[in-house]
Design goal:
The complex is a heterodimer of chains A (151) and B (110). Chain A is built from 7 helices and no strands. Chain A has 151 residues and is an all-alpha fold. Chain A starts with a helix and ends in a 5-residue tail after the last helix. With 110 residues, chain B is an all-alpha fold. In chain B, helix 4 crosses helix 6, helix 4 crosses helix 7 and helix 5 runs antiparallel to helix 6. Chain B has 7 helices and no strands. The longest helix of chain B is centred in the last third of the chain and has 14 residues. Classes of the chains: A mainly alpha (151), B mainly alpha (110). At the A-B interface, helix 1, helix 2, helix 3, helix 4 and helix 5 of A face helix 1, helix 2, helix 3, helix 4 and helix 6 of B.
């Protein structure tokens, strides 16, 4: 989970591995504060998300792809194809950091907005706003090539 | 859920970490200094139930390197390392946790 969050956020395997290690080392230091398995999962999501966002800001880390640089997917079919998945993942990695974290927590971890709000320590309304705007951006980008999108 | 949301779920499905990631974390942990007296005291004051849960998970999941380290009686550090190893191994944490919590409730010795 931790590595996967970092990978989808940073889209850089070396950085994702490094970040995942840092999260588990931090867990080691704070293990006495963990109260339950559920708390452990919550803690890992929270710390991993925060570190991903900090990583992007601290190192002025530019995503490998900007939204306008990601090639349009070639497939015109709505079947789930690997090319489409790769393109979508890249598009997500090019979103601004907080909306990116929201989208990843929503669709990788299957969290609802109230849970995401707790993990990211932001208002639920903000989470919903980020989610909606991100979906609009992603839909718009894909719609140019795929054509009619069944919403 | 819309098609786009289904596609996002597929695109953002969990990626497995590299096979040696757990070993690298454990290696870095082994390089860490011993816990301070304050950290050891905090473990005594707050019973490490989660570490016992992790211990039972390890036994049930038969993680070889974790079992070896535990047998070497690394004590508290081994339990911590095993917890990390199991979580990193991406085993079926949830199902195992459920079983362990149910059995730990029945077994008061744990």
């Amino acid at each position: 989970m931790v590595y996967s969050l970092a990978w989808h956020f940073l889209h850089d395997r070396a950085l994702a591995e490094e970040l995942a290690q840092e999260v588990f080392l931090e867990l080691h230091r704070h293990l006495a504060t963990i109260q339950s398995p559920e708390h452990l999962v919550f803690w890992l999501r929270k710390v991993a998300s925060r570190r991903c966002i900090d990583q992007t800001r601290r190192r002025a880390f530019w995503p490998k792809f900007r939204l306008d640089e990601v090639p349009e997917p070639v497939a015109k079919t709505r079947q789930r194809d690997p090319m489409l998945s790769r393109t979508l993942a890249k598009l997500v990695a090019s979103l601004p950091e907080k909306p990116r974290a929201v989208v990843i927590l929503r669709y990788q971890e299957d969290l609802d907005p109230s849970d995401i709000a707790q993990v990211l320590d932001m208002p639920v309304a903000t989470v919903k706003s980020h989610l909606q705007r991100s979906l609009d951006i992603l839909r718009d980008k894909l719609a140019r090539t795929i054509g009619e999108i069944a919403i | 859920m819309s098609n786009l949301e289904d596609d996002l779920k597929a695109a953002l499905r969990r990626e497995e970490p590299p096979a040696d990631l757990a070993n690298r974390v454990l290696a870095r942990l082994n390089g860490l200094p011993e816990p301070t007296w304050r950290e050891r005291l905090s473990v005594l004051v707050r019973p490490p139930r989660l570490q016992w849960v992790a211990l039972c998970m390890i036994v049930s999941l038969l993680v070889p390197f974790g079992a070896v380290q535990y047998r070497n009686r690394q004590g508290e550090r081994a339990k911590v390392q095993l917890l990390l190893a199991v979580h990193l191994a991406g085993n079926r944490l949830h199902q195992a946790q459920k079983r362990v919590l149910e059995s730990s409730r029945m077994d008061t010795r744990i």
